Amino acid sequence: MKMYTARGDQGQTDLLGERVGKDDPRIDLLGDLDETTSAIGLGRAHAMQDQTREALLTAQRDLYQIMAELAFTDATRPDAYRFPAERVAWLEEQTDAIAASVTLPREFVVPGDTVPGAALDVARTVARRAERVAVHLDGQGRIPNPEILRYLNRLSSLLFILARAEDIAVTGGATLAKNAKAK
User: Fold this and answer.
1) How far is CA 93 from the centre of its chain?
2) How far apart are CA 168 and CA 48, in angstroms?
3) Which helix (H) or strand (E) holds 121?
4) Which domains are seen in the chain, by residue range?
5) What is the chain's pLDDT, residue by residue, as a tens digit (183 residues)?
6) How many Cβ atoms are within 10 Å of 62's Cβ, its own excluded?
7) DSSP conformational letter for 79
8) pTM, entire model
């Protein structure tokens, strides 16, 4: 089986229902979401806690659902591919539960004290970029489902608090305390 088709050699690719240029903003967003899930995967590979790994894997699966919805044109998208509000609620619940177990310093957190935390901070910034592209497309009326924007907005909060939880797991809390004293 060949791993390439050569169909994109002229700079076009397929959405489900339409052939578009690889520079189409929807393709940019799909690429940013793909990069987000890969960055989350790197964070998951470095994570020390089972709870972190499980939450990250679930978020990756959610991103694949979002990408599937966005890969369809409006005319061809089945209702089954509409990203549900329940996933946003799950994300909020996860973020709140983890935040309840983490005491943040009053000062700005400087990323990079632990490998798992740093990997998740990179994932957070990649997720924010994908969110900005989604907001731009939404402004053009090209995001069919408001739950996608809500999810992407909340995702960076989950990644931030998971990064802090991982920092604590690796250092026993010494990292956050050291950052607070450094100011």
Assistant:
1) 16
2) 10
3) helix 115-139
4) 19-99+109-182 (1.20.1200.10)
5) 888 788 777 787 777 777 877 778 899 999 999 999 999 999 999 999 999 999 999 999 999 999 999 998 888 888 888 999 999 999 999 999 999 999 887 888 889 999 999 999 999 999 999 999 999 999 999 998 999 999 999 999 999 999 999 999 999 876 555 555 555
6) 19
7) G
8) 0.89
